[in-house]
């Protein structure tokens, strides 16, 4: 699959290479292939050097267009003793608006990034590879409106690969909400 700006990484069909994805990501993509095969069949994955898993390092090393990269951040807050968790997906050229937009969506007084150890344990994914594909069903899943258009290079659940999917696939994930203004420009 050739998408402008995806750089020098060797992309292969994700559904044929599920071993390159974390278990919850592979399971979610397989389920998506049954529900929306036209979207799931567009997903591609590339093995990468884990040393270059972080967004800026990856885009530089693999000569990718930064605007294709998307980050998934985990945010939590409490209301009436209940912890509310959200996976928020934004383009790498933006910042998630945690203190306003996400806090309001979660309906909490204070929202903050989830600690690394909890994020890894609860998601079943490696830190630096956490992705919206395969997050637990009881989490909120918010997508900045810019993510739902075009292609997105996201985590695969592992630091040793990246997943690229159409934004429409992310918008079709169970419980996904496309939110205008979820992120601010850098």
Task: Please tell me about this protein's structure.
With about 190 residues, the chain is an alpha+beta fold. Helix content is about 25%, strand content about 30%. The protein has one domain (about 10-185): YbaK protein (Alpha-Beta Complex), CATH 3.90.960.10. It has a five-stranded mixed β-sheet with strand order 6-3-4-7-10, with helices on one face. The protein starts with 10 loop residues before the first strand and ends with a strand. GO terms for molecular function: aminoacyl-tRNA deacylase activity.
Distance between the termini: 30 Å
In helices, the fraction of residues equals: 10-25%
Output the CATH homologous superfamily. YbaK/aminoacyl-tRNA synthetase-associated domain
Name the helix and strand elements from N-terminus to C-terminus, one letter apiece: EHHEHEEEHEHEEEHEE
Number of domains: 1
Fraction of residues in β-strands: 25-35%
| Count of extended strands | 11
User: What is the structural class?
Assistant: alpha+beta
Which residues form runs of ≥5 with pLDDT under 50? none
Largest sheet: 5 strands, mixed
Strand arrangement, largest sheet? 6-3-4-7-10
Count, helices: 6
**What CATH architecture label applies?**
Alpha-Beta Complex
Tertiary shape: globular
């Amino acid at each position: 699959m050739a998408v402008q700006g995806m750089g020098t990484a060797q992309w292969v069909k994700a559904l044929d290479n599920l071993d390159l994805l974390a278990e919850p990501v592979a399971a979610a993509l397989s389920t998506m292939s049954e529900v929306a095969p036209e979207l799931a069949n567009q997903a591609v994955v590339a093995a990468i050097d884990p040393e270059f898993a972080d967004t800026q390092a990856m885009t530089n090393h693999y000569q990718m267009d930064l605007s294709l990269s998307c980050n998934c951040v985990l945010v939590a807050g409490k209301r009436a003793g209940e912890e509310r968790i959200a996976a928020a997906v934004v383009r790498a050229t933006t910042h998630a608006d945690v203190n306003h937009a996400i806090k309001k969506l979660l309906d909490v007084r204070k929202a903050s990034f989830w600690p690394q150890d909890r994020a890894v344990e609860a998601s079943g994914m490696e830190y630096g590879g956490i992705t919206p594909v395969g997050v637990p069903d009881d989490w909120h899943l918010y997508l900045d409106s810019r993510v739902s258009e075009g292609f997105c290079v996201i985590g695969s659940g592992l630091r040793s690969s990246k997943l690229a999917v159409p934004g429409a696939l992310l918008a079709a994930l169970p419980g996904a909400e496309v939110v205008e203004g979820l992120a601010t420009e850098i």
